[in-house]
């Protein structure tokens, strides 16, 4: 629920109280610009200021505040295994969304014509046609290995801002955070670099599905489609045919698992993704099932060592603030720090804002802040 001050109620209250906006700001102990931002809906007063405002203008909360879902940030998480998204997580993400609204005016102009999928279905044949078209657009053959670098340009073209972050392997409950701002027509996608490459690629493909289908934001069907799209894009039917054939011809379960693992390693994706795509192909064409136990498959997957994206990207992780920002701008083509630099110059924001925006520790926020104001 997005809260804004009722401009009409405040104007009427000021008139009745015989106060100017400047005098109101003085009595509240804030800058005149803060009051202007409240009335424009760009910011919202803190509880103590809201209470004082209510008393000064003799307006109750219902008269003073307008509550609306329209234009409110739409939140989606890519959770870690065995974690649960609580209302506290959602409220915290919405707070970040409101901060991002302040950053939007400083972003470079985006594309007016944006790629999108007119229909989003998980029906097997239709989904395979969709991912085949996307792969063609990316310049990839039907059996080519898809790397996350192939997807980066699509995010920018679709009006999404990638924000690579270093949240650690186990510190937070999510490995990716999707915040769509409908009124601003901008989506921010926070992706954690401290994750395994196979997971990172899947999340990137999943998030790309979301930016292709903004009309499904926040809906359960949108999540189902994004998962189905990601798996099929990373390992489409031509690859699944080969994997299924190799597994089905194996006489022992260990040989079948090894066959699927070989495909997973070649494509740098999860063993489970390969298994699911081979099984989807088998079920669609009513073929005999693969003799593979899922419990054993997950054990095999978890036993396989995998490097983190951050370790592959930086020579000596964790990187310095300069190295990290350079990677965000050069590797991920992100305009996030371009906008943040401009915002710092114009509004004089401090390291605390960076800390809240990126959901990181104050020491790291101060290092990033110092690099941006150099």
TrEMBL record:
All residue ranges annotated as the HTH cro/C1-type domain in the record: 15-64
What InterPro entries does the database record attribute to this sequence?
Cro/C1-type_HTH, Lambda_DNA-bd_dom_sf, Rad_response_metalloprotease
TM segments? none
Pfam families, per the entry = HTH_3
Q: MF terms per GO, please?
A: DNA binding
Task: Quote the protein name from its UniProt record.
Answer: Helix-turn-helix domain-containing protein
Q: Which organism is it from?
A: Cupriavidus gilardii
């Amino acid at each position: 629920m997005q809260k804004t001050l009722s401009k009409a109620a405040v104007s009427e209250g000021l008139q009745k109280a015989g106060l100017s906006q400047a005098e109101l700001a003085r009595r509240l102990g804030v800058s005149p610009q803060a009051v202007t931002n409240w009335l424009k809906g760009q910011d919202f007063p803190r509880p103590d200021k809201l209470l004082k405002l209510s008393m000064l203008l003799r307006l109750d909360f219902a008269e003073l505040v307008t509550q609306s879902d329209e234009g409110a940030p739409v939140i989606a998480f890519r959770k870690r295994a065995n974690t649960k998204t609580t209302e506290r997580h959602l409220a915290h993400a919405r707070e970040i969304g409101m901060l991002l609204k302040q950053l939007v005016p400083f972003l470079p102009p985006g594309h007016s014509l944006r790629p999108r999928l007119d229909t989003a279905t998980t029906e097997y044949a239709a989904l395979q046609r969709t991912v085949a078209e996307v792969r063609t657009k990316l310049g990839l053959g039907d059996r080519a290995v898809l790397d996350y670098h192939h997807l980066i340009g699509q995010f920018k073209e679709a009006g999404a801002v990638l924000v690579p972050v270093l949240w650690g392997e186990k510190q937070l409950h999510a490995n990716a955070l999707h915040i769509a701002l409908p009124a601003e027509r901008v989506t921010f996608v926070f992706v954690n670099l401290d994750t395994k490459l196979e997971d990172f690629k899947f999340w990137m493909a999943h998030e790309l599905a979301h930016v292709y289908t903004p009309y499904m934001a926040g809906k359960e069907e949108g999540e189902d489609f994004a998962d189905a799209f990601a798996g099929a894009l990373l390992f489409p039917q031509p690859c699944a045919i080969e994997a299924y054939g190799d597994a089905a011809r194996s006489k022992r379960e260990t040989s079948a698992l090894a066959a699927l693992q070989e495909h997973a390693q070649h494509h740098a994706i999860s063993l489970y993704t390969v298994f699911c795509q081979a099984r989807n192909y088998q079920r669609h064409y009513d073929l005999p099932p693969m003799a593979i136990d899922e419990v054993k498959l997950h054990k095999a997957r978890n036993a396989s060592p995998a490097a983190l994206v951050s370790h592959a990207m930086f020579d000596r992780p964790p990187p310095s603030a300069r190295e990290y920002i350079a990677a965000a701008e050069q590797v991920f083509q992100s305009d996030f720090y371009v906008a943040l630099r401009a915002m710092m110059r114009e509004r004089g924001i401090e390291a605390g804002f960076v800390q809240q925006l990126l959901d990181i520790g104050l020491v790291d926020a101060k290092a990033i802040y110092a690099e941006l104001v150099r």
